[in-house]
Specification:
Blueprint (H helix, E strand, L loop, with lengths): L1 H7 L1 H8 L27 H8 L6 H8 L3 H10 L5 H21 L2 H9 L3 E2 L2 E2 L8 H16 L4
Antiparallel strand pairs: 1-2
Length: about 150
Amino acid sequence: MKKNLAIQNPAVYKKKQHNTIKVKEPAVAYRSTVKVVPSLNDFTFNEFKKIAATAPFSQAEWATLLHVSERTLQRYAKNNGSFAAINAERILLIDKVLKEATTTFGNMDKFYQWIKKEPYMLEGNLSFNSLSTYDGIQKVLTQLGRIQQGLFA
């Protein structure tokens, strides 16, 4: 008899079928990872100067890493010029490396000595010039992560 009731009144049948209990998952507290990143188009020399103050690099080394001349850096310094987006992105990536290096080595001088010694890693040797390409920066970050985990090769 119940089958006939369901066939005669399809709304009753659907209602009975969708009467389910939903279980809520507990809320997880996540660490806030939202960072305010300056616009790459408006990245000025003053913002670069804050990052460069923490690094042991000379102006000539910064020019090498950013693929610009020292004179260009001096011109940006004179009138607080804006960097090209590709240079601004590279500066922010190097800033990330510097923060990881501080976590890994404790201070910048040890990191600077380490990178100048051309350390070995699984994919080949690193060098100071590794910081001048995106791929090289990623390799340096990978190696710093390995050192933090106790994997030295």
